[in-house]
Design goal:
15 strands, four-stranded antiparallel beta sheet, globular, 22% strand, 8 helices, 348 residues, seven-stranded antiparallel beta sheet, alpha+beta
Length: 348
């Protein structure tokens, strides 16, 4: 079978559009467009259509995975009623069959092989600027990459990169999250997935996911359990530039179970708070007196194991442009955000 010539299809589509426009009032019987040409043009539109806000390929409609949510809907009963009211948690969001399918797929992700040209030592050249960052993101995209500062591995899948749609399993999970209400509408369907691998003692420093995304994050956890902590972020004072804490009584804890659980945080929890997982810890105990949103009594021992998290976000190119100029981001948060968002300086 010959390869499809997409440029030729585009030319055909333009001609058909011009024909339909100039013959708008002509009888349908005079339309000479063939069925095959129409089908080819429709296929091309599905592959190459763009979202007006983000300028990235639109996602193909597919059936979402079944979830264990009643009526497949995230509701108020899943909201963690604590000092923050924009956090939702589902202990077992996906069934065992879906979790097993994800595990099998994770094992198939290839490793990124660093070459001499990727190194910023004397062994090779690293260029700077926006274009080179996107180029390097493209090279890392879809591969396990070891972070330089943390030694652990991440795999970035950025569906906004040209000709790099999300793999079918991630696309299906993204549409599952949209269908269940984790993301507000089809216009904010996740197009960016970061997969983090954690050994039992590994964690991640306090950070925000940054202004490059719509203000919603959803994370699916597989493997071991862990305590996820959310605390007020540091902002620069408008008067003297000193770092200061926003007023909040205490950090909020959420136990993330590795049984295919789902945590969603948006709005205030996304914009005004950092989240973290303690490092160099093998076992933790949830806080007492309501500190832990899904263990109000507290005192529960959480023993860690090998864990993989899949974090879904909706990248917005217009918002991404503000990342480099947002003076309200604390420097420590920005350093961590660089590694999390797949910016090349943190990948290696």
């Amino acid at each position: 079978m010959n390869a499809i010539d997409f440029k030729q299809l585009r030319r055909q589509e333009r001609k058909q559009a011009q024909y339909r426009s100039s013959h708008l009032h002509r009888d349908d019987n005079t339309n000479n467009t063939s069925v095959d040409d129409t089908n080819n043009a429709e296929t091309h539109r599905n592959l190459d259509s763009k979202k007006t806000s983000g300028e990235f390929p639109a996602m193909t409609a597919i059936d979402p995975f079944p979830s264990l949510l009643p009526q497949n809907t995230l509701t108020e009963e899943h909201r963690i009623h604590a000092s923050l009211d924009s956090i939702y948690y589902v202990r077992q969001f996906l069934n065992d069959e879906t979790c097993a399918e994800i595990w099998n797929w994770l094992r198939s992700i290839p490793e990124y092989e660093c070459t001499g040209s990727d190194k910023n030592g004397s062994g090779g050249k690293v260029s700077s600027g926006k274009e080179s960052e996107r180029d390097e993101s493209r090279r890392h995209n879809g591969r396990w990459t070891r972070l330089r500062h943390a030694r652990r591995k991440v795999a970035l899948f950025d569906g906004t990169l040209p000709n790099h749609p999300l793999p079918p399993i991630l696309l299906r999970l993204s549409q599952t999250l949209t269908a269940n209400g984790a993301f507000s509408s089809p216009h904010s369907t996740p197009n960016h997935v970061l997969i983090n691998e954690y050994q039992p003692e590994e964690g991640i420093m306090a950070h925000t996911d940054g202004p490059a995304y719509e203000s919603c994050t959803a994370t699916i956890s597989l493997g071991g359990d862990v305590i996820f902590k959310i605390s007020p972020r540091r902002r620069s004072s408008s008067s003297n530039g000193d770092s200061e804490k926003m007023q909040c009584a205490r950090p909020l804890e959420v136990v993330l179970h590795g049984s295919g659980s789902l945590v969603v945080f948006r709005n205030e929890a996304y914009l005004d708070h950092c989240h973290e997982i303690a490092e160099n810890v093998l076992e933790e105990t949830t806080g007492l007196n309501g500190v832990c949103g899904n263990d109000p009594s507290g005192g529960t021992a959480v023993k860690r194991g090998y864990r993989v998290s899949l974090t879904f976000r909706c990248r917005n190119e217009a918002l991404a442009e503000k990342c480099l100029t947002d003076v309200h981001i604390d420097p420590q948060e920005w350093v961590c955000a660089q590694s999390l968002l797949g910016i090349h300086s943190s990948m290696g």
